[in-house]
Amino acid sequence: MTILSLRDILWYAGVAAAVPWSDNGPKHLHPDLVAQGPDLKLNTKGAGTQKPNILFILTDDQDIEMNSLDYMPFVQKHLLDQGTLFRNHFVTTALCCPSRVSLWTGRHSHNTNVTDVNPPYGGYPKFISQGFNENFLPVWLQGAGYNTYYTGKLFNAHTTKNYNNPHVKGFTASDFLLDPWTYNYLNPAYQRNHDPPIIYHGQHTLDILIDKAYALLDDAVASEKPFFLAVAPVAPHSNIEGDISSIDEIKNAVLSEPIPLRRHAHLFPDAKVPRTPHFNPDKPSGVNWIAQRPKLNKTLVDHNDYYYRQRIRALQGVDELVDGLFRRLEENDQLDNTYIFYTADNGFHVSQHRLNPGKECGFEDDIRVPLIVRGPGVAAGDISKAVTTHIDLAPTIFGLAGIPPRDDFDGLAIPLEKAQATVKRHEHVNVEYWGFAAEEGSLGGAIYWNNTYKSLRIIGENYNLYYSAWCNNEHQLYDLTTDPYQLRNIYPGYADYEENQTILGASLTRVIHRLDSLLLVLKSCKGVVCVKPWGKLHPDGDVESLPDSLLPTFDPFYEQQQSVSFSRCEQGYILDAEGPQDALSYSRDGAHWSHWV
């Protein structure tokens, strides 16, 4: 059972480096994978010329749905005006450490098994025990001839006690923020290369990071080799005093609002959380613990507005950092040969759906994040509607660096050039989460432990949907075409369900059967199956999208498919709690069980 030729699979796996090229990409390549080809063709330099540099700026908890980019004039000048904004860009786990590991490995959290910020299910110790210290992006880039640099936050539970057990591999030079001081804006701990950590008492983390980032960029330019530099400021994350590198210590930590640089503390005195329809709505929304949230009172609304102002004030230091990095690239004649990425590890909510500040949910606010790319051939001032995720970023960087993609990548290189905008891509985003949801800010502190769910975002011509299954087996279905703020759960059995409602001309029941089957494939997918999940359900290749799957002839097949479900709620990825793991595959002679080969 295949949907790709052996040659195509080998190319996707990165072992067919000599695949001949046609004008539209490598010959014999499946159309959905052609998006990887033009990047490799256009950006792989010939002998004696230098590969492009890559500057990657990764903020912490930055939103796009609450308009944070509107308050960053240098990001607008250097990136939005001169690059492309990918407006349908999503994280696949709305929590920093799992999201970062997925970003730097190109693999979903169910394939990294790093699903939390702390042991036993996550954090730096889990990253090490899973073998990724020898097997992630900087190591691969070094093998391709790049010098690699990093400063700022890497992972949670990367501490002043375990930073050398072992040291992070893969970097020519590094200067990491370390727990328990990572989120302490005025007392951060940085650790350079293999030197002991230094705690900068009374100094602001962003001022320190700016100096370190500039120094690393100077070193990178002086090396006269292609370079990868990642700069990861902690803003606009909450300020935290205390140790949160273990679950036992979290209860003793003090969470408060982000602390901006003193020169920015007076800005935006009238700014408030945007009063969108899902801001503290009159009617509860969501399911599980979210549906039980009371409406926020005036004290909480006022506090959350203040929290919002502190977030956009804290981002002013990041904005200054961006300006300084661009000035140095220009001064050193490196800007024209550098791709600059700007994104965040996850989104954030403040008062939406009656929620106090936090992330970890599957709503747009938490999973949709900024992604802006500027570089050679990237359209200036453009907005792409392509569906992209953090899983796609490592394959994208591989394409820019001229490295064939790996067979364990779960994503697909993003078409960066305007000419590639019409290249067909997948319609889906697989979102997964295990464990807790926490309220942040000085009036927060509540932790909800039953926050495990699987969900699917799917966007195409005339459809824009979110579907989820929770560990208590509650469900959500939102039609974002008519309900962009996800206030009406139209899954059968909930208050907003309407019996005669249709999507793409099909009943909700028929659509749900398709969505649930697609999610069943995605929640345990690996490699190319994550890119082409419909091919697992329809190996004959006649279904490549949700509309294709809605033919009535497929109804009996989808009706007999097992549903996504959980046997219990767990704090991590424990397989026997995860319900069915394999999906039926359709054949013209009837349905049968099949495993991807």
TrEMBL record:
Gene3D superfamilies on file: Alkaline Phosphatase, subunit A
Q: What class of enzyme is it?
A: hydrolase
**Which catalytic reaction applies to this protein?**
an aryl sulfate + H2O = a phenol + sulfate + H(+)
EC number in record: 3.1.6.1
**Could you give a single Gene Ontology term from the biological process aspect?**
phenol-containing compound metabolic process
Q: What keywords would UniProt list here? A: Glycoprotein, Hydrolase, Signal
Sulfatase N-terminal domain location: 52-403
Q: Which Pfam families does this one have?
A: Sulfatase (PF00884)
**3-oxoalanine (Cys): which positions carry it?**
96
Processing after translation = The conversion to 3-oxoalanine (also known as C-formylglycine, FGly), of a serine or cysteine residue in prokaryotes and of a cysteine residue in eukaryotes, is critical for catalytic activity.
The UniProt GO MF terms for this protein read:
arylsulfatase activity; glycosaminoglycan binding; N-acetylglucosamine-6-sulfatase activity
Signal peptide region: 1-18
Which PANTHER family does the annotation name? N-ACETYLGLUCOSAMINE-6-SULFATASE FAMILY MEMBER, SD21168P
Q: Which family does it belong to?
A: Belongs to the sulfatase family.
Official protein name in the record: Arylsulfatase
The lineage is: Eukaryota, Fungi, Dikarya, Ascomycota, Pezizomycotina
